Amino acid sequence: MTAHDLRSQLASLTTEAFRPELADIDRLSTLDIARLMNAEDAGVPAAVAGQLPRISAAIDAVAARMTRGGRLIYAGAGTAGRLGVLDASECPPTFNTDPAQVVGLIAGGPEAMVTSVEGAEDSGELARADLDALKLTAEDSVVGVSASGRTPYAVGAVEHARAQGALTIGLACNEHSALAAAAEHGIEIVVGPELITGSTRLKAGTAQKLVLNMLSTITMIRLGKTYGNLMVDVRASNAKLRARSRRIVALATGAGDPEIERALTESGGEVKTAILVLLADVDGPAAARLLEDSGGHLRAALARATG
Questions:
Q1: What is the pTM of this model?
Q2: Is residue 121 flagged as an active site residue?
Q3: Which of 54, 102, 145, 177 is deepest in the core (most CB within 10 A)?
């Protein structure tokens, strides 16, 4: 693609549109600019709401494959790639997932998290190589993320994953995008032109973060990683999380501190197991077996124990 072709393509994108009414924004007071940004951001959730049926269908498809051992893999460049890496990196401490279960790929590799890697986003071949390095399977789910919906790295990742039989999702912020068209599940969150022309880390980035939050969080709910709205699979890797673990057990069971400490000791610090110890009145090993037989779903394990 020539520079002229690329310029013409970008000019047609909603996310790249110029807003003449904001041409004097730099002359406004800081408070007025902040008010403008806040008003712009307020419209993002409504744009996401319009795509909820598509988002929900994608989540159900991802959860079905992850139940069978598949992985959730994000692929993007720049801001989109960073958001995918961020979402993936927060799953192990929040839901006690294996670090290999939810993966974020960014064009240019880890270096691109903090600096621009020249030309990386323009390479569909690089995306294919990154997925091949993960030994992609048909049980995996690949989410291409791109504000423009045309980024070769994201589109290339989805095309390659689909050819391998993996589930594919294309998340873009422009209508009729190549990314959504390439994916089995196309999600287009159209938030309109940015406050700063073409700065898609703003509204588009916020929209992508909201959708990625839904993809990972609701998938984990479907996989039994929560009990109600409690993070019962939280990994207690620091003092704050250890305190949160005790609070979660207390909220789920109503037990006092001595009982909670006993249950956590019996369960090796596993919150979900400790809750089952208390609610089902079983010992730690029995609780662990019940959970294993119930696929890790606490409600199902409780039903087995009390039914």
A1: 0.91
A2: yes
A3: 145
**Each residue's pLDDT tens digit, 72-125:** 999 999 999 999 999 999 999 899 999 999 999 999 999 889 887 767 778 889
Residues belonging to the chain: 307
Catalytic option among 121, 194, 266, 270: 121
Would residue 90 show up in a list of annotated catalytic residues for this protein?
A: yes
